[in-house]
Amino acid sequence: MKVLVIGAGNMGLTYATGMSKSKLLKKRNIMVLDKSKEKLEEVGKIAHFDAIDRLEDCVPQADIIFLAVKPYHAEDLFKRMKSLVKPEQLFISIMAGVTIKYIQDALGITKVVRAMPNLPAQVGQGLTSYVSAEEVSRLELFMVEGLLDTTGKSLRVKSENYIDASTGISGSGPAYVFYFMQSMMDAALQMGFSENVSKVLVSQTFTGAVELFNQNNLTPDSWMERVASKGGTTRAALDSMKDNNVGEMIKEAAFAAFNRAVELGEEY
Ligand SMILES: NC(=O)c1ccc[n+]([C@@H]2O[C@H](COP(=O)([O-])OP(=O)(O)OC[C@H]3O[C@@H](n4cnc5c(N)ncnc54)[C@H](OP(=O)(O)O)[C@@H]3O)[C@@H](O)[C@H]2O)c1
């Protein structure tokens, strides 16, 4: 099985690197195409990829084509690819907002999987939600899941609407966590800790809380109840967050991302 990754940006290379570890592929079975010569030179230095700069030299040979260019490059790319693609090829797109129907119509093919990754894929801790066209077989979906799982976890959703919804939670979510981390680091600095110490205090607090959450069957609400005793320090902090409506604001932010994903999808 040969996989072609189109677009050697952050995400394209993350998946190419992840997939190179998959048992489903042999090392030299990953081709990477980009229009930037500099990026291809970098890719060429990575032993197991074939770096290619012409669609004619890679699209016809591929069994799976991974689309990882920015959405605004899709139209031009598809025009140039259309005469080279074959109906049996499987397309996996991670382009935000680009619908399955748009890809099917623009390329004249049917087998499309639309996926939404997130940034921690770069360190093998990503969450990729995905949905497929009905023409994609069970066996093909099994392969897709195996490839997506090489960058973390994958989650199959019922419809493209859930891809937009997962954009609001896991897709954009790492930035919400960074926002929270930055605020806590700012507070630590203001309390007199150095930058390095602030970083350790905050990062280990996040890692520890997530680990507790993952290893037990309690909701975040239950954990808050456990840790906040009446009249104590944690209760003072949680009361302050409640008074300031922080929870509602985070929900609103997630919905802003969801709504924006829906809006972007209307263009394609
Ligand atoms: N980054 C994330 O966290 C994230 C999350 C979810 C979804 N995504 C999706 O992932 C996709 C890739 O994002 P990215 O951040 O990796 O983008 P990126 O860094 O811009 O990488 C895209 C690469 O594709 C190249 N390219 C553009 N048109 C091409 C063409 N016709 N043929 C060959 N190569 C072409 C670009 O070259 P030039 O630079 O020369 O244009 C660039 O090197 C996007 O569609 C985005 O919506 C990203």
Automatic annotation (TrEMBL):
Which compartment or compartments is the protein found in? Cytoplasm
UniProt enzyme class: oxidoreductase
Catalytically driven reaction(s): L-proline + NADP(+) = (S)-1-pyrroline-5-carboxylate + NADPH + 2 H(+); L-proline + NAD(+) = (S)-1-pyrroline-5-carboxylate + NADH + 2 H(+)
Q: In which pathway does it act?
A: Amino-acid biosynthesis; L-proline biosynthesis; L-proline from L-glutamate 5-semialdehyde: step 1/1
Under Gene3D superfamilies, the record lists: NAD(P)-binding Rossmann-like Domain, ProC C-terminal domain-like
Q: What is its EC number?
A: 1.5.1.2
What Gene Ontology terms describe what this protein does at the molecular function level?
Answer: pyrroline-5-carboxylate reductase activity
Function in brief = Catalyzes the reduction of 1-pyrroline-5-carboxylate (PCA) to L-proline.
**PANTHER family to which the protein is assigned, alphabetical:** PYRROLINE-5-CARBOXYLATE REDUCTASE, PYRROLINE-5-CARBOXYLATE REDUCTASE 3
Instruction: Identify the HAMAP family for this entry.
Output: P5C_reductase
| Protein name listed in UniProt | Pyrroline-5-carboxylate reductase
- UniProt organism field: Flagellimonas iocasae
Lineage, broadest ranks: Bacteria, Pseudomonadati, Bacteroidota, Flavobacteriia, Flavobacteriales
